Amino acid sequence: MIGLETYRVSAQALADYEVTFSDDILDRASPELATCGNRTETRSRRRIAVLDESVNALYGTRIREYFEWHGLECQYVVLPPGEQHKVMETVLTVIAEFDRFGLDRRREPVISFGGGVLLDLVGVATSMYRRGVPHVRVPTTLLGQVDAAIGAKTGINHGAHKNRLGSFQQPAGVLLDRRFLASLDERHLRNGMAEIVKLAVVRDERLFELLEEHGELLIEERFQGSSPTGERVARQVLHRSVQGMLAELEPNLWERELDRLVDFGHSVGPALEMRADGELLHGETVAIDIALFTTVAASRGVLDDKAGRRILELLHRLALPTDHHLLDGDLLRRAMTDTVRHRDGRQRLPVPVGIGAATFLNDVSDEELRSALRHRRREAVPT
Ligand SMILES: NC(=O)c1ccc[n+]([C@@H]2O[C@H](COP(=O)([O-])OP(=O)(O)OC[C@H]3O[C@@H](n4cnc5c(N)ncnc54)[C@H](O)[C@@H]3O)[C@@H](O)[C@H]2O)c1
Ligand SMILES: O=C(CO)[C@@H](O)[C@H](O)[C@H](O)[C@H](O)COP(=O)(O)O
Ligand SMILES: [Co+2]
């Protein structure tokens, strides 16, 4: 007690989880999937697995064979793919399945197989159910592997807003297996590349160079290492991306600090993504946002023209969009209003000051943004 009427409660939550690269998690000889997330002494042989519909079609048989071989009794829930399903209704469907299964509180990890959409929404369900049940994440998209799966954020869209509802929930474990990327279509590979470009621009010049030199090869080989160079670079790029992302996330996992470099690409992007209503993928809006704020930085002179050009050229080379017809002055203004609220009253706009280095701006006017947009359109390479 610190006064006559006041009791202070002070407790700390420890985040402690592992992100593990594994070469073939569905190989029955790999123990990771069978053991991941079950750290309690009273181990259970039951699991509930939530699968994206496409992942189920492609890998469902192998996943079922794996759990069966390991003597785990598993219930399967298959969810339809697509950002339009990242809503509360789907979360409640998942929760109804937990009830039907009779999910124990700690010893029966929920295991998710899918991209960022599925992981985000199952994350919401697992963080709410009994106020938190363990969740093992198995990302099957590039974007999932380098970003969505490895931090502590869960989220669903609500109203007109991206990720308006969600929670911070550390995963019980994350298993990264690039073999899943073999079946990913080219657009979704490029989409994942956008989050890698984001990270490279703000903190890792070497990663940026690797993308400049080998980005197209990586996409062509779907990160499967069909050539010796492709193999070496795929491993390097995935490891540098995950390592760099975790280095940004770990010291600020609960986002007490709102100046976040990994928000680069996400200042007006989320509003554009919602407005485009399925026409643009998440990573594509990240690319458009990167292009816009690179232009802001170059126009201000905090970024030299050569570096600015390299960033835009890399986006073009990776066939990522750098503009969209729905991006206009009105959208920019409304996006910034919401972003400032999300960042607690300040803009905190990450912008590059070189390749691999960034700063935050807090005084960008609506006119400056509109002017950057006009500038981008004048410079746009006709296709
Ligand atoms: N929580 C976070 O920190 C965080 C970070 C970044 C992005 N996100 C969220 O992630 C979402 C985007 O994730 P995404 O890009 O992975 O999209 P996604 O989950 O929609 O998956 C993309 C598509 O690929 C299909 N698919 C998945 N795995 C496949 C495979 N191995 N082979 C073939 N097809 C496969 C899916 O069915 C889907 O159609 C957005 O909602 C974004 O907000 C969250
Ligand atoms: O897209 C996401 C998370 O949703 C990440 O790629 C990104 O690094 C950041 O977490 C976002 O910039 C901020 O996300 P949010 O708080 O707006 O959901
Ligand atoms: Co993102």
TrEMBL record:
The keyword Ligase does not apply. It is an enzyme of class 4 (lyase). Residues 192-336 form the 3-dehydroquinate synthase C-terminal domain. It comes from Actinoplanes aureus. The keyword Disulfide bond does not apply. GO terms for biological process: antibiotic biosynthetic process; aromatic amino acid family biosynthetic process. Keywords: Cobalt, Lyase, Metal-binding, NAD, Nucleotide-binding. Its cofactor is NAD(+); Co(2+). It catalyses: D-sedoheptulose 7-phosphate = 2-epi-5-epi-valiolone + phosphate. One of its GO terms (molecular function) is metal ion binding. Its EC number is 4.2.3.152. InterPro entries: Dehydroquinate_synthase, DHQ_synth_fam, DHQS/DOIS_N, DHQS_C, EEVS-like. PANTHER family: 2-EPI-5-EPI-VALIOLONE SYNTHASE, 3-DEHYDROQUINATE SYNTHASE. This is 2-epi-5-epi-valiolone synthase. Residues 77-190 form the 3-dehydroquinate synthase N-terminal domain.
